[in-house]
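Standup notes
- HV: blocked on the assembly model, inputs below
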Amino acid sequence: MKKKSKFGKVILFIVCCLVAFVMVVPFVWMLSASFKLKNEIFSIPIRWIPEVFHMDNYETIMEKINFPLYFLNTAKVTIIITLLQLLTCSMAAYAFSKLRFPGRDTIFLAYLGTMMVPWHAIMIPQFIVIQKLHLYDNHLSLILTGAFSAFGVFVLRQNMLSIPDSLNEAAKIDGCGPVGIYWRIILPLTKTGLATLTVLTFNNVWNDYMGPMIYLDKDTNRTIQLGLATFKRQFDADYGAIMAGTVLSLIPVVIIYVVAQKYIVDGIAYSGVKG
Amino acid sequence: MKGNKEKKAIPRSNSRLNRREWTAGYLFLLPNFIGFIIFTAIPVVMGFYISLTDYSGYGEKKFIGFANYLKMFQDSDFKVALQNNLIYSLTSVPLTVLFALLLALALNRKLYGGKLFQTVYFFPNLTSMVAVGCVWLQLFNSKKGPVNQMLTGVFGMENPPKWFMGTSTALMTVVIVVVWKQAGYYMVMFMGGLKNIPAHLYEAAKIDGAGPWQCFKNVTWPMLSPTTFMVTILTFIASFQVFDIINVTTEGGPGRSTEVLVMRIYKEAFKYARMGYGSAIGYFLFFIIFVITLIQWRGQRKWVVE
């Protein structure tokens, strides 16, 4: 019996390694192709580690498109949206979890309801709203539409509910107002939730493609996903340069993953349990 | 689990302190509320109105009643997209759920290097669809890509599939890439669900002489069903919103073989300047997701009561 289960575990381990291989191989290809010359990329047999590391592809992508600017645009939009979401979502979550006022639970239910409105279904009227506000081809269009999130409110509220009410009651008796309680007691105790929301939002906004595609026009306004997709369309056969751009676009995501993997994984596991 | 001790919001007396808390409550909600009104509520109402007009994106719009909705069911582009989308959903959802569950079960066995496996499996999910699309386009390149090189070279296949370039294979290629990308995400959800199954249930089952399969069938599967249900619903909803990967790899082609609902909305509204018609398809999508959500609510209630 013991032996059999050990054997099973070895098989399982091998299967897991194979799956890991399938998960990783595209990224190995990406890295490797980005350092190869054009005629080396599809060589037979495949050479996974380039003989010589050529930087030509990275030079190409910097020359042909305004890559650093796209990078900067994306960083700007992503950071601003993330900060705004943290603020607006934590404020609403605080009201929904710690303050008592008439209609609170009804409003919260209505709020949950908005989570099911798919963005794609209302992107046309939302686009018209943005046009009417004269924000088309302006980063503010992305920032304003991205600054609010029912999901974020939901996650943070869940977090805040686990803070015992005795804490803010005590602060209230000591004369601390709602703003003080929010800023000095609730926020510091919601660090995990805030961290989760930060990484998830950052990642979503950084990877957003359709939003920028609809709202932005000028080359100098483009974000990295939009810039990369446009480059891919224009220089379809420049495989190496496309991969170089892809590598560069992934750098922040990888950094976030290395630093904050725990928060990402915990957040997702939790949302699955809670439902 | 921990959040259910919520107190009823009953304002006790109209003391000054209470009223101060009321005002604070509304003020704290205000930013989110304004954003919600302008960017969700108004578009929801406006979208329905626009779907009843022939709005092109500029100039005047004429009220045409439900003509756009009637047009939808005579429009072969729409019907093909809907059909493709259904095929896509009914393949990508079960495959994703199955792979995610299997991966979670495997990693739940406390394997050597399990943490590393989890890290690796999850990683594709964090990358953008644009990046993923660019990479897989090359891997699946029908003439010289490594996948077909392997199929012809190692397995001796004479006519390997054309993947993204083939009318009959493009949609399934999209499914493969999407499952590859998102399985890790739902795996993590399943792992959360598995962690919540109390260990004593397994011990009891083992004492009763249950083998691994019986343990799975009688303990894991029923205890995990709320998570499985959640994951199925979430992937199902997401499958009706597929767009990025298709726009990067095939743009709906070859032919119309990868046209899907959101692709139709996008093309009608932003390429052919038929905002009214695009909005009608948008509302159709809304309706589908609304129905799935209703199923979710009913299902959840069922599990909460039982």
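- HV (later): unblocked. The two ends of chain B are 16 Å apart (CA to CA). The longest helix of chain B spans residues 16-51.
- Next: hand off to the docking folks.
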